[in-house]
Amino acid sequence: MWWVMQERVGENREQKRSQLDERHDYILTIVADHLGLELSHVEDAVLEGSQVKQNCCRYLCRIRGC
Fold this sequence. Notes:
mainly alpha
């Protein structure tokens, strides 16, 4: 059943991603540039659930190898 949950998470993330506009892209691009990450990684970190700060830190540390 874990794959069903993973599928739902992916669907939710893509639905949220579709709501982003050029304002979000502008800010997320600045964040990505300053952190030395790809824009898609920063977007994924922001879109991973409702606890944005905690999820972003955890996700970005995982990517950067903290």
